[in-house]
Amino acid sequence: MADGEGDPGVFVATALPGDPRLLPTVTNAFLGTRAFRDILHVAGVYSGAAGDTHRADVPSQLGLRMAAPGAHTPAESFTLNTWTGTFSHTIQSPGYTATHQLYAHHSLVHLMASSITIRRLDGSTHPVTVQLRSTFVPWSQDLDLTPGPDFQGAHYIHGQTLVPEVEGGPRPTVHMLWTPIPQSLTLGGEERERCWEFLTAVAGGEEEVKRSYSAGLALVAAGSLHRSHVRAWAALRRGCSVELDGPLALRQALHGCLYYLLSAIPPRDSPGVPFHGISPGGLSNGTRGEDYWGHVFWDQDTWMFPNILLLCPEAARAILQYRLRTLEGARRNAQEQGYEGAKFPWESAATGREVCPEEIYGAQEIHVTGDVLMAFEQYYCTTRDQQLFREDGGWELVEAVAQYWCSRMVWSEEEQLYHIRGVMPPDEYHSQVDNSAYTNAVARRSLNFAADMARDLLLPVPEEWEDRARKIKVPFDEERKYHPEYDGYSPGEPVKQADVVLLGFPLMHPMSAEVRRNDLEMYEPVTDPAGPAMTWSMFAVGWLELKELQRAWSQLEKCFSNITEPFKVWVENSDGSGAVNFLTGMGGFLQVVLFGFTGFRITRSGLLFDPAFPDLITKLKVSSVSYLGNKLEVTISREEIRLEVTERSREPRAPPLEAVLGSGQRFPLWEGQSVSFPTAPGWIQRSPSRTS
Questions:
Q1: Nearest-5° angle of CA 412, CA 418, CA 422?
Q2: Strand (E) positions, 60-104?
Q3: Average of per-residue pLDDT across 215-220
Q4: I need a surface site. Which of 86, 152, 323, 623 has the fewest CB within 10 A?
């Protein structure tokens, strides 16, 4: 390993951060908590009406804390192991160690578990006792909980949320079983080592919660509960492995981001459990007043999704299915504002209705609708999964978004162009502006994709879509050769966060290298240095595109002021305000690695590459890039690109691929055979001349 000692995927501390928000989160796709916290959250379970809807607090006995009896203070350590998906707390006393492990089971998503192991270190035979401190009370401010009969030694409560998201709407039910926790545990005088396991099972129904608890007990009896979790988690980490040769801090940040983001996605073998989206602070956070109440924003679709798509397209599909399930709510949003089609909410919970507590954002920050559709487009270009669009509701969403944009535009006789007026761009320091460059560019991209998708599905293309895509205004200053953020923007006006720079990536709006540079030069100095963490990653990607490697690195370095020690938990803003465990910032950071350093760009015709590394990075290896049903191991150094198809989907059968360089050289990509060539721009595409 370059530059530093130690494992970059294991974070160890001898003391905890003073702010409990900075403790590591332990989640799977369905359940989430924070270390030493006495509540957990369940995916999709919100309480409160409209702007007050928030993740319902479910009482949790997982927040217990070990303590050694007596006057002496033993040595303690706290470890987050991103390879095993486990947080642990160890007490080291002269004659014994006691270790408490906590994890959300990756494949049994209704199960969270903790264990305490006491191990004797000397030949003594006196009993060893460890005290357990817990603030657990089986009560919630958000649920009407009722106790039920014990089940297989577990206590049982169940109940509904108190207030539905929309009037007359559903109130989700929660059923929970948990192993009672004693006040202390004792290792007998004749015992060398003993492990106690404590399970918490949570589900929407009695049958499922009992089945999950029983499955956990069976694994406990076989001595393999933690091992089964580690096996499932390690398989995911192997399949999504990203390795860098570079500074230790960068590699630690990379592993931290992968741990927290991959914890949020569904496992491959749980298709029956609907996925409920990813909020900026993840499932562990989102109680009332915290992490935007656990709502889902464009953060999911624009900042997190591209990484998940490249590494794990099955999970990316589950994210899109969340948007499909909330389409009817989005239709209602459009209708209530007097428009056609579907308008996705700025803040979404269970129904797709707008749940932002402040009206201005829901009314004006409409670019989110285009952001949602861009995720569908990236998915389609990467997978060619027509079933999602033909059979699973995807086309209805595409069509509804196109209809919304058409109804939201007005024709300007003066400019002979379509305008979108009265919006808030991604830069939230400005509102009620006309022709936000980003909003209009993403609307154009929506309409172009809708037309392309219609042709692929052999459906008629409404002339209106193509006409409006051609004629929508995207502000451009011909004199200065840059994109003003909106009509009337004056150079030098402060900007909250990445906005116009997103035209270059991820929108890939057509522009010359000169204009791309001018946009970066114009907005970099006026972007608020205290703004949200994902901003600097997009400037870094822009400078990498232009091969300005030192400038790219200086932007990427700014991200580190948002990464807290010792567990690499991100804060939204460098002063510690905003969402914590800020997955949005992590998503931006990962895009620098997966799209910036590689130059990957997802297009209809191929997966482009054009690598660029800052000086401190010498090599990047991505174990499993998914493209058109093929899994590619991609290894890039300054001198060489090496590609190998490690797996090809058999059902449906994946097409053979080839790599094409700008020089015209072609390299067939056969399964199990490595191909290498000098580092240069090119693309990966379906091979036109080979059959399966």
A1: 85
A2: 65-67, 75-81, 86-93, 96-104
A3: 98
A4: 152
Give me the numbers of helices (H) and strands (E) for the chain, helices first please.
Answer: 17, 32
How many other C-beta atoms can be found within 10 angstroms of the C-beta atom of residue 151?
15
118 with 98: CB under 8 angstroms? yes
With both helix axes pointing from N to C terminus, report the angle between 463-471 and 437-456 in degrees, rounded to the nearest 10. Answer: 150
Question: Residue 6's pLDDT band (boundaries 50, 70, 90)?
Answer: confident
- Tell me the C-alpha distance between 331 and 397, whole Å: 10
With CA atoms as reference, report the closest residue to 62 among 94, 24, 93: 24
Distance CA 219, CA 199 (A): 11
User: Given this model, what pLDDT does residue 69 score?
Assistant: 85
Give the residue, 270 or 157, on which the prediction is more confident.
Answer: 157
Beta-strand relationship, 640-648 and 410-412: unpaired
Please name which of 326, 282, 289, 285 lies closest in space to residue 304, comparing C-alpha atoms. Answer: 282
pLDDT value of residue 652 = 77
> d(Cα 279, Cα 572) in Å, to the nearest integer?
13
Taking the C-alpha atoms of residue 8 and residue 652, their distance in angstroms, rounded to an integer, is 38
Taking alpha carbons only, the member of 503, 386, 393 closest to residue 443 is: 503
The type of residue at 198 is F
Please, what sign has the CA dihedral across residues 501, 506, 507, 510? positive
In this predicted model, what pLDDT tens digit does every residue of 351-364 receive, in sequence order?
Answer: 999 999 999 999 99
The pLDDT assigned to 192 comes to: 96
Q: Select which of 243, 290, 396, 428 is catalytic.
A: 428
Q: What percent of the chain has pLDDT over 70?
A: 98
* CA atoms of 110 and 106, how far apart (whole Å): 9
Residue type, 100: H
Does position 459 have pLDDT exceeding 80, yes or no?
A: yes
Residue type, 550: Q
Residues 176, 58 contacting (CB under 8 angstroms): yes
- pTM of the prediction? 0.97
Q: Which residues pair with 642 in a beta bridge?
A: 635, 676
SS3 358: coil
pLDDT the model gives residue 3: 39
Interval 635-684: pLDDT, tens:
999 999 999 999 998 877 889 999 999 999 999 999 999 999 999 999 99
- State how far the Cα of 373 lies from the Cα of 196, in Å rounded to an integer: 48
Domains of the chain and CATH, by start = 10-237 (2.70.98.40), 619-686 (no CATH)
Angle between helices 225-239 and 206-221 (to 10 degrees): 100
- Cis bond leading into 652, ω under 30°? yes
pLDDT in tens, 517-536: 999 999 999 999 999 999 99
Band the pLDDT of 456: cuts 50, 70, 90. Answer: very high
Reported as a single tens digit per residue, the pLDDT across 144-163 is 999 999 999 999 999 999 99
The pLDDT value recorded for residue 72 is 76
Reported as type and span, the H/E element at residue 444 is helix 437-456
Please name the amino acid found at residue 427.
Answer: D
- Please tell me the chain's helix, strand, coil percentages from 3-state DSSP, rounded to the nearest 5: 30, 25, 40
Q: What tokens appear for 399 in the block?
A: 């069509």
Reported as a pLDDT band with limits 50, 70 and 90, residue 691 is low
Q: How far apart are CA 384 and CA 604, in angstroms?
A: 9
b (16+ CB within 10 A) / e for 570-593: bbbbbeeebbbbbbbbbbbbbbbb
What Å distances lie between residue 60 and 39, 43, 107, 136, 205, CA to CA?
5, 15, 20, 6, 18
Instruction: Retrieve residue 243's tokens.
Output: 């390795």
- C-alpha distances (whole Å) from 662 to each of 189, 421, 665, 679, 685 are 73, 41, 7, 11, 13
DSSP state of 690: -
Is position 428 annotated as part of the catalytic site? Answer: yes
Structure tokens given for 248: 């230790």
